[in-house]
Amino acid sequence: xxxxxxxxxxxxxxxxxxxxxxxxxxxxxxxxxxxxxxxxxxxxxxxxxxxxxxxxxxxxxxxxxxxxxxxxxxxxxxxxxxxxxxxxxxxxxxxxxxxxxxxxxxxxxxxxxxxxxxxxxxxxxxxxxxxxxxxxxxxxxxxxxxxxxxxxxxxxxxxxxxxxxxxxxxxxxxxxxxxxxxxxxxxxxxxxxxxxxxxxxxxxxxxxxxxxxxxxxxxxxxxxxxxxxxxxxxxxxxxxxxxxxxxxxxxxxxxxxxxxxxxxxxxxxxxxxxxxxxxxxxxxxxxxxxxxxxxxxxxxxxxxxxxxxxxxxxxxxxxxxxxxxxxxxxxxxxxxxxxxxxxxxxxxxxxxxxxxxxxxxxxxxxxxxxxxxxxxxxxxxxxxxxxxxxxxxxxxxxxxxxxxxxxxxxxxxxxxxxxxxxxxxxxxxxxxxxxxxxxxxxxxx
Length: 445
Hints:
CATH class of the largest domain: Alpha Beta
Number of helices: 14
CATH topology of the largest domain: Amidase signature (AS) enzymes
Number of domains: 2
CATH superfamily of the largest domain: Amidase signature (AS) domain
Radius of gyration: 20 Å
């Protein structure tokens, strides 16, 4: 078996702990940046989490962060904290390749709004992370710069499309990474790599400067070691100025969605995810979905039509520059008709109404994040609970409903099967993010 569980500088260190150490003078931002850079040097050859590493820029930003703290200027909880950025998000002066040969020579001239907010908060950008080409895939193993590899077993996928971000946090190369999530692209790598991934409410974090996959479904999200670190980062990125809720998640009513209502699911994944909710104060009850087919139709019709609209000229003029995996997906997307898109919008409204109704009876919804553990790199077909499936459909099946609904969702580690992580997913109403992440914290404690 390939190299397993590499240990980086940040493997067991949280943003909260690092922030305290910085302010106590026990560590400097330069030391943290060097820790990240050294970890990348030592570990990334096996994982391919990073496309670009900005050594000079990271150390310069870290020196500035130290100088400001020394002068009494404290920009908040991310001041001096190293962060990695998915390579479909613009970072001024760095390549933004979208994982594609189409953009192999493209260099960004400005920061995406989410990156600008990180910099304003004193965070230190150390580099860009591998993405499934154009973020159009949930495996993370189809990119111009090659596949990202799972730190728990490098023969396995990280999940995608925020593939390198998941691997970088899981391996301890950085304590925080930005990702994007159109159908699960933050939560899937979080689940398969054993970290926490949070997708906020639609439009809570601006997508300006982020290359689109499907504008109606795209979200910017975060990956970190803990739910509390995700909350800290989310509040900065969302520009929230008010004090966070004091809700500790000590009690919550949770509606468990049997995952087989959406897709055949490995029985052990189901068991482990459900068992993770066995927390004092959580009241868990099964809930039923009226018509999950409505959600599947909504996602396919919206994502395919919007994705093809973005890439139609590239498909026509330079199809050979796409990876075969993404080219096949775009060819399929190009067959989506106008009437299918219109019906998909109607189906989206029906699904959102059903989710709103479910969340009017319980505080949170829960289900596994993925129906299987990490497949092998390059694997495209899989048997799940005796049923043949394609890997793409299997990985997206339990996460995409919450992109269609536009509601916040988080994946947290629930356990493992033969050393491969299993994630459990929690979903809440918009505005209940503090409860959502407090409950997620209780699961992982």
